[in-house]
Amino acid sequence: MTPRKPKPARELAARALCRKAGLPEDSTFEGRPMWESFLPEADAVLEAIGWVEDETRQQTGASGAQLRAKMMTDDQKQETMEIEAALGRSLIAWNHLEATIQLIVYRLGGGTGQTDILTARLSAQTLLDVLETLVNEFADEGLKSPLLHLHTYFSRLKGYRNDYFHGIRLVAFTNDGEAVALSESREARGRLTLKQESVTAVELNEFTEHCRAAQRFAGHLVAAIYGLPALHPELPAPTWQEMPALPDKKKTFPLRLLNIEPPQTASQE
């Protein structure tokens, strides 16, 4: 009997991380074994300790990422760069939108140095909560409806932002050869849940366009709140008859972990 070939260190490390996360390592996700989702983390660990896996790597001194790049075709390299560029554009568009909303919060909150201190480094969720409260309490009646529309727009985009910016681990290829970004995140809100999904460059570009549309809308609101039309009468006055259409609510694809029913108490029996 031919002896089994030992598994590579990358696979062993990725399988161990997969088991540590409580996931079945040989189950299928997006057409690939579940343990392969943990290869980026495994590579990071192995490269941090200077692990050399085989003669090829020892001779070339190449990292795992460099070796994978050499194995990709030119088309795959191009598709990978397109997804990475799309992710970068979406990050810039989100930051621009967030900064514009911060200008609105600053003005509605009084526009003083104290306001600047209190609103510094707000998380996206806190920024949403503060915006809604300030609009309901202090905004002009004529601006409340568009401002609350902006609040809803920003809230929906935040769901995409969380999964895209905090969850994307690596770029991989489907069985059909399509390049996708693999996103993974964990939640522990009463139950431990793992969310995984694949994201295409088209989806990232759609998110970017939504961020830009929301930012343009927010920019008109900034002009109205700061009184810019009165200062610059040559500019067209902003109107709110056509508020931008809202994006769909973000769908999640959870894999629930530790799905064990709690034991019944004596009162339940």
Number of helices: 10
Which structural class fits the helix and strand makeup?
alpha+beta
Anisotropy-based shape: elongated
Residue stretches low in confidence (pLDDT < 50, at least 5 long) are 55-64, 256-269
Strand arrangement across the biggest beta sheet: 3-4-5-6
Helix content: 55-70%
Q: How many angstroms separate the termini?
A: 56 Å
How many domain modules? 2
Mean pLDDT: 80
Described by strand count, sense and barrel closure, the largest sheet is: 4 strands, antiparallel
Give an overview in words.
With 269 residues, the chain is α+β, with helices and mostly antiparallel strands. It has two domains: 9-71, no CATH class; 74-256, no CATH class. The chain contains ten helices and six strands; from the N terminus they run αββαααααααβββααβ. A hairpin with a 5-residue loop joins β3 (168-173) and β4 (179-188). The model is unreliable at 55-64 and 256-269 (pLDDT under 50).
How do you describe this structure in short?
The protein has ten helices and six strands; from the N terminus they run H-E-E-H-H-H-H-H-H-H-E-E-E-H-H-E. The chain has 269 residues and is α+β, with helices and mostly antiparallel strands. It is elongated.
Structural key phrases:
55% helix, alpha+beta, four-stranded antiparallel sheet, disordered C terminus, elongated, two-stranded antiparallel sheet, 6 strands, 269 residues
